[in-house]
Amino acid sequence: MERTSPPAPVTATAPPPLVSLDGVRKSFPLPDGAPLVAVNDVSLTLTAGTAVALTGPSGSGKSTLLHLVGAIEKADSGSIDVAGQRVTDLSGRALAAYRRSVGFVFQRFHLLPTLTALDNVMAPLIPFHTEFDKAARARELLAMVGLADRASALPSRLSGGQQQRVAIARALVNRPALLLADEPTGNLDSHTGTAIVDLLLGLRDEPGTTTLVIATHDAGIAARCDRAVQMRDGRLTSLD
Ligand SMILES: Nc1ncnc2c1ncn2[C@@H]1O[C@H](COP(=O)(O)OP(=O)(O)OP(=O)(O)O)[C@@H](O)[C@H]1O
Ligand SMILES: [Mg+2]
């Protein structure tokens, strides 16, 4: 009988996680001396190209966790790796370059009030040489968020939802592989909120896979993400 070699085992080569947190902790000093632990021993891995909802009550540490991943704040201990880079070890220019590579939509839009919508979107690019036309890229993004006709408006002339869409366009201007959105639909009516979530979740299909972490109080948004994780008192309480 002829021997045949056994078939090669089928190994599912899972892609490496884009984001990996291990034992991350962050506390803030309080006036009475005892530190407030905002993020407490959080470990989490996120696969590239997925949308993850970060849920949990007010004060549970969602914004702080996003700030740590975006290197806006520095962790007290633990490690954060993003796309093979140990973010928690970066400093100086490498840290600045990392921060620029991440898209961040702030809980309060943080638009520059004296700049037009177009200039706000372009602002992160201004100090840098780019291979592409900065204004054209900013116009393209404003069109994507449905604001092509408001490019020259100041933020004070835009509604909350429109300002949030400008903030999203700005967060995308560097073509980030990782987009951190902190309650992007907070304070918006449900129709505008749904449009913004459609826009964000649609980014997973754009060229150059985007991984999203969306902090939200909205169970409907969490249900539409690929995965939801919950925080309570600085800890991750449930993973699915
Ligand atoms: N810069 C800071 N200094 C002192 N305490 C802070 C600071 N930032 C956050 N905290 C505290 O850390 C805890 C977590 O805050 P965080 O903003 O991360 O919560 P959150 O889950 O985003 O809440 P919300 O849903 O209201 O946005 C809170 O108790 C908050 O008061
Ligand atoms: Mg918050």
Describe this entry's structure for a reader.
This protein is an alpha/beta fold and 240 residues long. It has a domain at 18-110 and 176-239: P-loop containing nucleotide triphosphate hydrolases (Rossmann fold), CATH 3.40.50.300. It is built from seven helices and ten strands. It has helices at 62-69, 92-101, 117-122, 134-144, 160-172, 190-202, 219-224, and strands at residues 17-28, 36-47, 51-55, 77-82, 85-86, 102-105, 178-182, 211-215, 227-232, 235-239. Strands 6-7-8-3-9-10 form a six-stranded mixed β-sheet. The site of adenosine-5'-triphosphate (ATP) has 12 residues, from strand 2 and helix 1.
CATH superfamily of the domain at 18-110 and 176-239: P-loop containing nucleotide triphosphate hydrolases
Taking the sheet with the most strands, its summary is:
6 strands, mixed
Report the order of strands and helices: EEEHEEHEHHHEHEHEE
Helix content: 25-40%
Distance between the termini: 49 Å
Q: What is the arithmetic mean of pLDDT?
A: 89
Strand order of the largest sheet: 6-7-8-3-9-10
Number of helices: 7
β-strand percent reads 25-35%
* CATH C-level name of the domain at 18-110 and 176-239: Alpha Beta
- Here the CATH topology of the domain at 18-110 and 176-239 equals Rossmann fold
> pLDDT under 50 segments (min length 5)?
none
- Please identify the structural class as seen in this structure: alpha/beta
What's a concise summary of this model?
With 240 residues, the protein is an alpha/beta fold. The chain has helices at residues 62-69, 92-101, 117-122, 134-144, 160-172, 190-202, 219-224, and strands at residues 17-28, 36-47, 51-55, 77-82, 85-86, 102-105, 178-182, 211-215, 227-232, 235-239.
